[in-house]
């Protein structure tokens, strides 16, 4: 995909903001406000991949109800810190 960095951030922001589950909208919006601008390409790629996961799964991972898959574990931990702060 030939996408500018700015467009990538906008797309990721929109996908974070409009998830389908209001709780995930709020959690991911706050996470993006706190971290999106500072993420490098590798972190953005991983976060973008996470956004393709099912909202129900994401919510259970972030809230600690279900163990997070290894590839997303550190990222979900960071997101859960946002969740626990709100």
TrEMBL record:
InterPro entries: SDH, SDH_sf. Pfam families: Sdh5. The keyword Repressor does not apply. Keywords: Chaperone. Gene3D superfamilies: Flavinator of succinate dehydrogenase. It comes from the Bacteria. Belongs to the SdhE FAD assembly factor family. This is FAD assembly factor SdhE.
